[in-house]
């Protein structure tokens, strides 16, 4: 429902999902471009799944909270970009559905020590046809990994850009976002 | 509501006491990036709803309201939906349709990001 005209339309909001394992540098990446805010979401736990008995009487399930980081970048008065960080493992997939809804695309932030943390979310983005780039966070300072090796290890298709980045560095993170927007533009131009 | 003798962290359960136990909002149009804005006037609500109303004094997104209230997203959604239903808060939608932005928008975004 739209509000009355006096408030005018809301700015165009572009949403980018930043997915990666714990410690991959999602918060660092978002904070390189904007202030970071934390959002608490609930994750449902079933009693059967947790095997605890002190929650008896809570109708079979309760919730635990998971923090979701996000940042807002105002490009101009009519365009705002939101970056939402989310863990990349399957048990957080209930958040992914909502995060990819209407999203411009996604950044998979890969930690080469734990590439398997990215598998679930890459499968999800591929299945949902969400445009994504893989950014390999080289936060140890030296670029000891080759992007192509990571591409092979993650088994992502050729059109998916794989690039090295330093999540602490503003220019490096800008490059990642530029790479994603260029990918989306290519898809738009090719009618994909 | 906290069950008698509950031994765990009460924060696991307490938030939904604020919503009368409801975990689903009355409306589904409050996405993370939906923009909301308060309507000025007297609001006779619970303190948490009043706080949410105050956080919407200027247009903000649902994500920002949730973050700044410190309440879980699900709780904020239920309370915000109530405020919208009662006419205390309005939702605003961007002019663009919800799918991918067009070429001109993408090129503009690209140029702006490079300037950041």
Structure notes:
The complex is a heterodimer of chains A (192) and B (116). Chain A has one domain (10-189): Rossmann fold (3-Layer(aba) Sandwich), CATH 3.40.50.300. In chain A, 30% of the residues lie in helices and 32% in strands. Chain A has 192 residues and is α/β, with parallel strands linked by helices. In chain A, strands 2-3-4-1-5-6-7 form a 7-stranded mixed sheet, sandwiched between helices. Chain A has helices at residues 26-33, 47-50, 93-100, 119-127, 147-154, 170-189, and strands at 12-20, 36-46, 61-76, 79-87, 105-110, 132-137, 162-165. By secondary structure, chain B is mostly helical. Chain B has one domain. Chain B is 37% helix and 9% strand. Chain B has 4 helices and 3 strands. Chain B has a 3-stranded antiparallel sheet. Chain B is elongated, with a radius of gyration of 18 Å. Residues 1-8 of chain B have low confidence and may be disordered. At the A-B interface, strand 1, strand 2, strand 3, strand 4 and helix 6 of A face helix 2, helix 3, strand 3 and helix 4 of B.
Describe the structure concisely for a colleague.
With 192 residues, chain A is an alpha/beta fold.
Strand order of the largest sheet of chain B: 2-1-3
Give the oligomer, counting copies of the same chain as homo and different chains as hetero. heterodimer
What CATH calls the topology of chain A is Rossmann fold
Number of strands of chain A: 7
Q: Please indicate the percent range of residues of chain B in DSSP E strands (runs of 2 or more).
A: 5-15%
The most extensive interface, with participating residues per chain, is: A-B, 56 and 50 residues
Would you identify the CATH architecture of chain A? 3-Layer(aba) Sandwich
Rg of chain B, Cα atoms, Å? 18 Å
Order of helices and strands of chain B: EHEHHEH
Number of domains of chain B: 1
Describe the strand arrangement of the main beta sheet of chain A, using strand numbers.
Answer: 2-3-4-1-5-6-7
What is the helix content of chain A?
25-40%
Largest sheet of chain B: 3 strands, antiparallel
User: What integer is the average pLDDT of chain A?
Assistant: 84
Number of domains as seen in the coordinates of chain A: 1
Radius of gyration of chain A: 18 Å
Query: What is the 3D form of chain A?
Result: globular
Total number of β-strand segments of chain B? 3
